[in-house]
Amino acid sequence: MANFVIVSESTTDLSPDMIKEMDITVLPLHYRIGEDTFADKAGEGLSSKEFYDRLREGGSATTTQVNPAVFEEEFEKILKAGKDVLYIGFSSGLSGTYNSSLIAKESLADKYPDRKIICIDTLAASMGEGLYVWYAANMRDEGKSIEEVYEILESNKLNLCMWFTVDDLNHLKRGGRVSPTVAFVGTLLGIKPVLHVDDDGHLINVSKVRGRKAALDALVTKFKTTALKHEQTVFISHADCIDDAEYVRDEILKAGATDVKISNIGPVIGAHAGPGTVALFFMGSER
């Protein structure tokens, strides 16, 4: 049995079944839509369909990070049980959550001098962060130490590729990712952006294509041309557009992927990306 526990957050967008199978601890972020605030946690708050329908109807959502007190409480439970903590966190380029984990780590250091808390900034989001956690859980189950897992994850961090496309430019406009003019003209012409998360963990608009299918095909092309090897496990997340996610999955399998796992984009990531987002995650030559 491993002597460390893997901790991450709901921004991994891992399904409840995957979380259970991996035996990891997941801390929820929170989101507010209208006058209601919910924990981003399975079985609580809005269903995926309800959340995205409210966005489609013109609602907007805001999100809050995990605070240091929550991290400290969760970390201390694990340390008290005689185990170490490997925290795998949401990109510091997109949230202050990772910094909250460092505050908690520092607060507990003197109290538990014989235990370890190792914090990793994945510089990733959604199931990109989830894929990172998946690799960590596999290595833990193979018997690797917390230090070995940390070193392997760190040395391969910038090979974690994350490619997105969104269906509605107005959500990127609200987040300041595109200008109002670009959103208006792009919507009028059916322009779809192709984005990725860069080496600093920021969401970057890379290119634009005309039409939804072309945007989905662009994700597949990124896999075909930049994957370290095609025979690997690939993750796909989607914002209430399962048919599009399954189209990408089928094309990725044709390209040689050995396994493709699909999950919903939760409300915290979905609040910023909007309904109709499809994201693809794999190990590649570079981000």
Structure keywords:
Hypothetical Protein Tm841, Chain: A,domain 3; six-stranded mixed sheet; 2 domains; 287 residues; alpha/beta; four-stranded parallel sheet; single chain; globular; Rossmann fold; 42% helix
Strand-helix topology:
Blueprint: E1 4-9, H1 16-22, E2 25-27, E3 30-33, E4 36-39, H2 48-56, E5 61-64, H3 68-80, E6 84-89, H4 97-109, E7 117-121, H5 126-141, H6 146-156, E8 160-165, H7 169-174, H8 180-189, E9 191-197, E10 203-210, H9 212-226, E11 233-238, H10 242-254, E12 259-264, H11 267-273, E13 278-283
Parallel strand pairs: 1-2, 1-6, 6-7, 11-12
Antiparallel strand pairs: 3-4, 3-5, 8-9, 8-13, 9-10, 11-13
What does this structure look like?
The chain is α/β, with parallel strands linked by helices and 287 residues long. The chain folds into two domains: 154 residues, Rossmann fold (3-Layer(aba) Sandwich), CATH 3.40.50.10170; 125 residues, Hypothetical Protein Tm841, Chain: A,domain 3 (2-Layer Sandwich). It has eleven helices and 13 strands. A six-stranded mixed β-sheet has the order 10-9-8-13-11-12, sandwiched between helices. Strand 9 and strand 10 form a beta hairpin.
Shape: globular
Radius of gyration: 19 Å
Number of helices: 11
Terminal CA distance reads 34 Å
User: Which CATH architecture of the largest domain would you pick?
Assistant: 3-Layer(aba) Sandwich
Structural class: alpha/beta
The description of the largest β-sheet is:
6 strands, mixed
H/E order of the elements? EHEEEHEHEHEHHEHHEEHEHEHE
Strand proportion, as a percent range, falls in 15-25%
Overall pLDDT? 93
